[in-house]
């Protein structure tokens, strides 16, 4: 990696990654924390409308593979910052359009920025970090984001409970502050060069099949949490916007305290053991969602569910170990598209199922976690190029 000659010691790729890891908690997490209360109280959504909105939100994720074509004209780093501009602007204006059509438009703008950003951040992280340091540093980035989330959700709680601001002003403040950080990063950091030139075409390799399968199931399963777990808190148990914000504060406090340690544990115990532990836990969590009748127990499941997501970085480090270094940018886009194939369909279809049986939605999530568990057993103890899938010895 090469820095400009006049760069200061703090102008490093790791510090850039840490700063951009602050922006999503400020912008997207604010959007997400307020969303369920905003759409129910101001736009009068039911499960069908929230499912439609979340399906539209996932369309840019399904199209994330197009990032590789944009990279023919833009550097990855600049493209990542442009994506953050779209994300923060989308959040800032969300509260001014409390209707189905308005929310679909602002959500689409926000989501285009978010999904391109996540694609490019994954690519650049795996290019800039060594295989040895990646698990710990990626865990540290989650921890930094969690600390930013703690501060953000504390601010949201104060704005909602103490100052009792309307949703539109809270969205505007969160989006504007996030945009200011993006502009600072753009002005303060030089362009960094990757060690290995990236393929500027779509890459699909047979030997990556297990990574693709794990990514697909992760994307499908995550929708149950993102779309319906929070909706359950509001619709069934009557959580207010401040209650949801407090729940997120607890979530990110755990991530701040433990994400870096989780990264170290993944480096020590290996990706297979980490993912097996995650999926066993998620099966129990989703079954719990299906039958819970206590608001406190539901909130506890929500916190545990969120904590398990930190283990999912094992999928990224597994890929880094087995992949050709030149495939990082292309495969980041392809993997986001794969993870969103189900994500485009699940929110709207499961939104209709929700109208009949909310429990069935979460039992389907448990089945997805079980399928992921089977896949995780196929990861070798020491994945590497040429050793992508575990070879079982049959008697």
Write the layout of secondary structure elements.
Elements: H1 13-41, H2 47-62, H3 67-70, H4 76-93, H5 100-128, H6 134-162, H7 167-188, H8 209-235, H9 241-269, H10 271-291, H11 295-308, H12 313-322, H13 328-339, H14 341-356, H15 358-376
Helix pairs in contact: 1-4, 1-5, 1-6, 1-7, 1-9, 2-5, 2-14, 4-5, 4-7, 5-13, 6-9, 8-11, 8-13, 8-14, 8-15, 9-10, 9-11, 10-11, 10-12, 10-15, 14-15
The end-to-end span amounts to 49 Å
From the 3D coordinates, which CATH architecture would you assign?
Up-down Bundle
Order of helices and strands: HHHHHHHHHHHHHHH
Report the helical percentage. over 70%
**Strand element count:** 0
Shape: globular
CATH fold label: Growth Hormone, Chain: A
Low-pLDDT residue spans? 1-6
Give the helix tally.
15
Give the helix/strand class: mainly alpha
Estimate what percentage of residues fall within beta strands.
under 5%
Q: How many domains in all? A: 1
Biggest sheet layout = none
CATH superfamily: MFS general substrate transporter like domains
CATH top level is Mainly Alpha
Mean pLDDT figure: 85
Radius of gyration: 20 Å
Describe the structure.
With 395 residues, the protein is mainly alpha-helical. It has a single domain (13-376), classed as Growth Hormone, Chain: A. Helix content is 75%, strand content 0%. The protein is built from 15 helices and no strands. Helix 1 runs antiparallel to helix 5 (100-128) and helix 8 packs parallel to helix 14. The longest helix is centred in the first third of the chain and has 29 residues, at 13-41. The protein starts with 12 loop residues before the first helix and ends in a 19-residue tail after the last helix. Mean pLDDT is 85; it is low at 1-6.
């Amino acid at each position: 990696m090469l820095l400009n000659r006049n760069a200061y010691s703090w102008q490093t790729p790791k510090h850039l990654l840490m700063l951009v890891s602050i922006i999503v908690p400020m912008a997207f997490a604010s959007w997400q924390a307020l969303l369920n209360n905003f759409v129910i109280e101001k736009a009068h959504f039911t499960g069908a409308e929230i499912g439609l909105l979340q399906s539209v939100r996932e369309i840019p994720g399904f199209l994330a593979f197009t990032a590789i074509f944009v990279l023919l004209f833009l550097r990855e780093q600049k493209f990542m910052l442009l994506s953050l501009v779209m994300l923060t602007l989308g959040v800032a204006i969300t509260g001014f359009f409390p209707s189905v059509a308005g929310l679909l438009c602002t959500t689409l703008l926000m989501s285009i920025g978010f999904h391109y950003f996540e694609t490019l951040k994954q690519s650049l992280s795996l290019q800039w970090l060594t295989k040895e340091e990646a698990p710990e540093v990626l865990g540290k980035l989650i921890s930094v984001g969690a600390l930013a989330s703690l501060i953000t959700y504390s601010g949201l709680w104060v704005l909602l409970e103490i100052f009792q601001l309307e949703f539109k002003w809270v969205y505007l403040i969160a989006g504007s502050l996030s945009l200011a950080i993006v502009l600072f990063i753009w002005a303060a950091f030089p362009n960094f060069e990757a060690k290995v030139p990236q393929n500027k075409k779509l890459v699909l390799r047979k030997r990556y099949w297990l990574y693709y399968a794990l990514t697909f199931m992760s994307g499908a399963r995550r929708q149950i949490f993102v779309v319906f777990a929070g909706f359950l808190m509001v619709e069934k148990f009557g959580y207010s916007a401040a209650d949801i914000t407090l729940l997120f504060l607890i979530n990110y406090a755990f991530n701040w305290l433990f994400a870096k340690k989780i990264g170290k544990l993944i480096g020590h115990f290996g990706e297979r053991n980490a993912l097996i532990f995650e999926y066993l836990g998620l099966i129990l969590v989703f079954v719990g969602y299906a039958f819970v009748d206590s608001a406190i127990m539901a909130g506890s499941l929500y916190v545990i569910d969120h904590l398990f997501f930190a283990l999912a970085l094992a999928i990224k480090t597994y890929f880094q170990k087995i992949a050709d270094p030149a495939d990082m940018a292309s495969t980041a886009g392809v993997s986001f598209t794969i993870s969103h194939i189900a994500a485009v369909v699940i929110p709207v279809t499961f939104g209709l199922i929700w109208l009949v049986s909310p429990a069935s939605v979460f039992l389907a999530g448990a089945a997805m976690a079980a399928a992921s568990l089977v896949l995780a057993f196929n990861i070798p103890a020491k994945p590497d190029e040429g050793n992508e899938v575990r070879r079982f010895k049959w008697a």
